[in-house]
């Protein structure tokens, strides 16, 4: 009789806890679907993302929209791709250009000494100092 009560208790507790299907329960509560087996990979990607963001102080990712928030691993991977792509573009161009955040194309500002005066391009002013005004 005692065993049958224990079995009934076990059956009640196992049936009342929903099966998470191998998903991490803590992240699932927050709306992210990450398999427990993928947690090591996600953690590694998050560490890489933290290192890359900390090195360059990149702020443009705050404007990035990720359309599937339940895919945490894919989101982190897309962030890493954006950061790595930006780092590759920074080293590919000479130091006279600054890369700005954009969509798929790169926007550059050229700090050459050519300045447009009263709508007449070609007016050149040579500045000896390192400070130049940036047109807004």
TrEMBL record:
Keyword Ubl conjugation set for record: yes
Entry's Gene Ontology BP terms: gibberellic acid mediated signaling pathway
Gene Ontology CC entries for this record: nucleus
UniProt keyword annotation of Hydrolase present: no
Residues of the Transcriptional factor DELLA N-terminal domain: 24-87
Main location: nucleus
Keywords of this entry: Gibberellin signaling pathway, Nucleus, Transcription, Transcription regulation, Ubl conjugation
Positions of region (Disordered): 1-22
Cell compartment(s), UniProt: Nucleus
A Pfam family per the record: DELLA
Domain of life, source organism: Eukaryota
InterPro entries in UniProt: DELLA_N_sf (IPR038088), TF_DELLA_N (IPR021914)
Family: Belongs to the GRAS family. DELLA subfamily.
Protein name as it appears in the record: GIA/RGA-like gibberellin response modulator
Organism: Dubautia arborea
Designated gene of the protein: GAI-A
């Amino acid at each position: 009789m005692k065993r049958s009560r224990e079995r009934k208790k076990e059956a009640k507790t196992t049936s009342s806890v929903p099966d998470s299907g191998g998903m991490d329960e803590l992240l699932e509560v927050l709306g992210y679907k990450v398999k427990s087996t993928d947690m090591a990979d996600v953690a590694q990607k998050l560490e890489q993302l933290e290192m890359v963001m900390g090195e360059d102080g990149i702020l443009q990712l705050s404007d990035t929209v990720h359309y599937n928030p339940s895919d945490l691993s894919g989101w982190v991977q897309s962030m890493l791709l954006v950061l790595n792509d930006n780092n590759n573009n920074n080293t590919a161009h000479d130091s006279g250009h600054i890369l700005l955040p954009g969509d798929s194309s790169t926007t550059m500002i050229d700090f050459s000494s050519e300045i447009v005066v009263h709508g007449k391009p070609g007016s050149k002013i040579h500045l000896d100092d390192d400070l130049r005004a940036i047109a807004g």
